[in-house]
């Protein structure tokens, strides 16, 4: 499973389109296997969406996202969990403890 998290420093970014960095986390079972930070600050909104989709995440954990973009990701098979606030790794840990994988 892959989880994408838009970052602002080490925290979940307040909004998907304002994040300067995207964290991609590869997970097996409930264990983090690898992480990769991708700089996205210079990408336009359509290119951010395309970039995220090309990375193949199963889930997007984010602070905020507009409804149209959320529905677009969901139609592409990406589960969107918004209103996530705080340290990105703590949010990821909470997600792993509560999700069924």
Concise account of the structure shown:
With 101 residues, the chain is of the alpha/beta class.
Topology:
Layout: E1 2-8, E2 11-12, E3 21-28, E4 31-39, H1 45-55, E5 59-61, H2 67-75, E6 79-81, H3 88-98
Q: Give the class from helix and strand content and strand pairing.
A: alpha/beta
- Average per-residue pLDDT, rounded, comes to 95
Distance between the termini: 8 Å
Rg over CA atoms: 12 Å
Q: How many helices? A: 3
What is the CATH domain class?
Alpha Beta
Report on the architecture of this protein.
Strands 1, 2, 3, 4, 5 and 6 form a six-stranded mixed sheet that branches. The protein is globular. The protein has three helices and six strands. It has one domain (2-98): Nucleotidyltransferase, domain 5, CATH 3.30.420. The mean pLDDT is 95. Helices cover 31% and strands 32% of the residues. With 101 residues, the chain is of the alpha/beta class. It starts with a strand and ends with a helix.
Name the features.
globular, 101 residues, alpha/beta, single chain, Nucleotidyltransferase, domain 5, 3 helices, 31% helix, six-stranded mixed beta sheet
